[in-house]
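Task 17 of the worksheet. Students: predict the tertiary structure of the chain below and write it out as structure tokens. Keep your answer in the requested format; marks are given for formatting as well as content.
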Amino acid sequence: MERSGSINAPLAAVYEEISNLQTWAAWNPWHPAYRKGVDVLQQYSKPPTGLGAWFTWSNTAGSSASGRVEIITADSLKGITYNMTHPAMKPVKGFLELKSTADGKGTAILWRLETNVGITPWWKLRGFLMDRMFGSSMEEGLNKLRNLCEKP
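Model answer:
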């Protein structure tokens, strides 16, 4: 599943937002603090940016809602790749790919999520419906990221 767009901001400004895991709560719909009113315990690596940075979350109510995100590649000119694990889903590899727009004034972004759904029929069906189920969330996230990066 993937979504793309352009942001009227320099590549460095966009990279700063996507490579800092603490800023994800403001734009990434899968960050546990993105939805207001969700009570989760979050822990971040020090520093929370760049290659090897990670964050974990767990529900303070004691449910099994927990997970981890770790940046596995980071390049200020190309973007980041990350792994996301959560007990209720298959591991996900995420890509936030960046490049300068043709005029050099903005940034083109491609957000892609990949997972291996295996052979179980339920997961195959879920994989088939993934774009329909989660595509609008990706679009919302990219729009919020655009708004953050384009603020004067």
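Marker's comment: The mean pLDDT is 86. The helical segments are 11-18, 121-150.
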